[in-house]
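So, can you check this one?
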Amino acid sequence: MTYTYKTKGTCSRFIDVELEGDTIKSVKFHGGCDGNLKGISAIVRGMKIDDVEKRFTGITCGFKPTSCPDQLAKAVREAYEAQRKYCLLYTSPSPRD
């Protein structure tokens, strides 16, 4: 399942995140510093979301209070929670059962 996160306060506009459980399968940034963001996407491929959050949360860019890595940490957590909610919704027993 691919999840699209709308960034706040960065040059990138959106981040597409694909997870397998709590592991990052792929990341694609839309906008921002192309080479750097492709590098970050390659680095996080195969990482657990907890590790991405620990490493990237709180990183700033210039005078901005956030950065693309900081936004990625938020995006992977939000994608994971959405995935869990979706799985619960579609795997829970029907009230009719």
